[in-house]
Amino acid sequence: MTSEQQQTQPAQPAQPAQKRKSTLNKAMPGLLIAGSLAGVGAVMVGLLSLAPPVDDGSSPLAAGAEPSTVQIENAGAFVLPPTVGPGGKSGLTPARIDAPPPVAAVPTIAPIPAAKTAKAKAAAKPSRIKIPKIKVNAPVGQVTVDIKGNLGTPSLSKPNQTGWYRFSPLPGENGPTIINGHVSTRKGPAVFARLSELVKGDNIYVYRSDGKIARYTVSGIEQVSKASFPTNRVYGNTDGAQLRLITCGGVYNKAGHSYKDNIVVYATLSKKKV
């Protein structure tokens, strides 16, 4: 499954349009070639320092060579706004790795109080997730991290099952609740196949085994490279009850049987039944 990304044009000095275009056209081959040399100039270093980690497949161009489609599409990547985009299948916005989480779509409400007794804590687990917009109605299991610190995923033999990171907060409680799921298996689409279609304002319902229900409202969505995953933004502590949904996206690597990117949905608690 692929998703288009929104692009913006790089900022340029104030020059007459015709002169500016001519100057940039003449200078571009030199700048690209210079980028591959050991003695990179201060100007190029400054530009690269602004760039989000984007693996765009570009490389210095040989004299007279034409840039690839990928290079053209990502030419302005370093000036993308440093915020999580509203997302949606028509244009996921890659955010800088140090960008803050998106602002809530609706006023936040107080979290569900944490269980006070060991028995109550043991009884409370997320049991089901429903996302009406993309017709998700799926059971929630549990996942944890492996010895390398990688977050586990539900079994591929259960494509409709999602996984709650069991060391993240219970749905509705303070902090970021983490739930993931597959986008596809070898047999076809999986539970989060349409996750990238969500947009700011969509509702997500997470049911708990103790009868409590947390309704979240989507705040933002983004597509990020697995090589530069924004760990702090996704897993970092929050002031209120929030939800993170994670699946795969972007280009599929047939040799590695994996996708290059992740789709991350950010949502904030907007209603609760306790």
Automatic annotation (TrEMBL):
<keyword id="KW-0378">Hydrolase</keyword>
<dbReference type="InterPro" id="IPR042001">
    <property type="entry name" value="Sortase_F"/>
</dbReference>
<keyword id="KW-0472">Membrane</keyword>
<dbReference type="InterPro" id="IPR023365">
    <property type="entry name" value="Sortase_dom-sf"/>
</dbReference>
<feature type="compositionally biased region" description="Low complexity">
    <location>
        <begin position="1"/>
        <end position="17"/>
    </location>
</feature>
<keyword id="KW-0812">Transmembrane</keyword>
<dbReference type="Pfam" id="PF04203">
    <property type="entry name" value="Sortase"/>
</dbReference>
<feature type="transmembrane region" description="Helical">
    <location>
        <begin position="30"/>
        <end position="51"/>
    </location>
</feature>
<dbReference type="InterPro" id="IPR005754">
    <property type="entry name" value="Sortase"/>
</dbReference>
<protein>
    <submittedName>
        <fullName>Class F sortase</fullName>
    </submittedName>
</protein>
<feature type="region of interest" description="Disordered">
    <location>
        <begin position="1"/>
        <end position="22"/>
    </location>
</feature>
<keyword id="KW-1133">Transmembrane helix</keyword>
